What we know:
Strand order of the largest sheet: 1-2-3-4-5
Pfam family, one: EcKL
Helix content: 40-55%
Order of helices and strands: EHEEEHEEHHHHHEEEEHHHHHHH
Protein name: CHK kinase-like domain-containing protein
CATH class: Alpha Beta
Structural class: alpha+beta
Low-confidence stretches: 1-8, 15-20
Amino acid sequence: MQIEEKLQDFDTTKLVSTHQDELPCQLKAVLKKIAHEEGYLNYNILSRSISTEGGNYMAMLYEVDLKGRTNEGEKETNMFIKRVISQEHVKIINLSDIYSRELFFYNDLSKVFKELETEADVPLDERYKSVKSYNESDTEAIIMQNLNKEGFTTIYRMNVMPLKFAELSVQQLARFHALSFIIEQRRPEYFEKKIKSLKPSIQYGDDYVEFCKNMYKVSSNRLSNEIKDKIDKKADEYMKNYLTGHKTDVKCLCHGDYRMNNILLKLTEGEITDVIPVDYQLMYYGSPIVDFLFFIFGATDKEFRRNHFVHLKDMYHETMEQYLKYFDIDIDIVYPKKKFEMDFEDNLEFGLELNLYIAPIIFTLEDDVPDFDKVDLLEVKVKLDDRYYERLQGVVDDMIEWGKL
């Protein structure tokens, strides 16, 4: 039974304009090309550096408005730009690689998605949704339509997500994974060359272990000694499993960072009516159930999971099953329900691993959010909101109840 939820009982992320900013020369040249393609005869550029209250770490963000005259009259083009930060202080991720992945999604893969859905005549309201991007994007800057101007926003990173948002987001994730299975069958050469070859961007090694240990010092300081002793005995296993220990032989293209503030939402009269996933920098070929668990454990508390976890799990599989039918693919061939349930049960510990090593970054207080363009990721020290410790304790309680800890 589903619990009725109160509408808009959550905070949205505020895009804070830090200052009017002089764009780098390279971006100015790119915007000139876009203005030409958009048909501007003359135009002005208004650009702003923005902050997402700690919702972004791997980019400098800009809002850019082109305003001017075309042959058809006055026109305005609104863009959102993610520009790469320096690699110097981010050792566990290759920034050029993750920007190449996002570029691959917007300039290549998203078009394949649309072609396949058009060929199968998938109804518009059941298609996978993505943001318009500009061909001028490159590995230095990703340029997209600014949907904030169309009424889209994100939920504040520390909130427990609303049920409606979770349902719409799970349906989109199921379609994203299903499209990987579809490409594997319909375009096998493309799949082998461009999808199956995508390894996780974060590689297991000394720098990654040091980062996890640094986060654990902060995440564990309110856990009981008994719980810490249990976690300490499995620490090496947890750190390795978070990246490579996923217990399944069913694999597909995964989003890799499917968390709440990487999903745009639209509110209509206080109701969530639409969601659009963004940020494909950590895409990889791996376990779909881990992608699902990442989403759930990254933005829920114990009460939410008690009320809605099973419902969302079932919705994910049912959505995939219905979506695959448009392509005449039987889900029992690609991801049978029995196998799906087994993978779900076998990988639940991922929720604890996520909350021990990654969630502290999400719950860092605004005034303490690290600037990875200036501060080494391996040396960062964070102060956490009290909600983090409540959330972690809830995950620990669940793991004990489920026999995982």
